[in-house]
Specification:
Blueprint: H1 5-18, E1 21-29, E2 42-45, E3 55-67, H2 72-85, E4 90-98, E5 102-112
Parallel strand pairs: 2-4
Antiparallel strand pairs: 1-3, 3-5, 4-5
């Protein structure tokens, strides 16, 4: 490869090695999108109660992460970024599915109709304190040395 292809092959390999994952976002518009507000988009998971605030739906949004971007945090951020670009204030009924090399998130992108109560504080599980001590270990069984049947006297044969 003395004709100059070696540097090109090295660059191609570096590009392939660095591109080990990506995230795709999609939307299905229900109404014309609003201009982006620049505010942080709120995320309400499917098992959370809906906010007590009037809203209208703008779109169904979806994010799919592949490879090293197949984590719940990556697809949740991609979902809220997409919603922000559509002018949404929140994503409701969000659902995240985690696989081995792919993660998927979807939800309903909404715009608030008016002011309402502040979003509830995030509910984290209670702290259970320090990890419990490990269970006591049993002593490992010790092997018994048995005489070989072909061994003579003094070699464990016993004759």
């Amino acid at each position: 490869m003395s004709d100059g292809r070696a540097p090109l092959a090295l660059v191609a390999f570096a590009l392939v090695a660095s591109a080990c994952g990506h995230t795709e976002t999609h939307q299905a518009l229900l109404r014309a999108p609003a201009p982006p507000t620049g505010k942080t988009v709120e995320l309400y998971m499917a098992d959370q109660p809906l906010p007590e605030r009037p809203y209208y739906e703008i779109a169904l949004v979806q994010a799919i992460g592949f490879g090293d971007e197949a984590h719940p945090e990556d697809v949740a951020k991609a979902l809220t970024d997409k919603a922000g670009r559509l002018g949404c204030d929140a994503v409701l009924r969000a659902f995240i599915d985690q696989g081995y090399s792919r993660a998927h998130a979807s939800g309903v992108c909404v715009k608030w109709l008016g002011p309402g109560p502040a979003a509830p504080a995030p509910a984290l599980p209670p702290d259970r304190g320090a990890n419990p001590p490990p269970p006591a270990l049993r002593p490992a069984p010790a092997p018994r040395i048995e005489p070989l049947p072909s061994g003579g006297p003094g070699q464990g044969g016993g004759r």
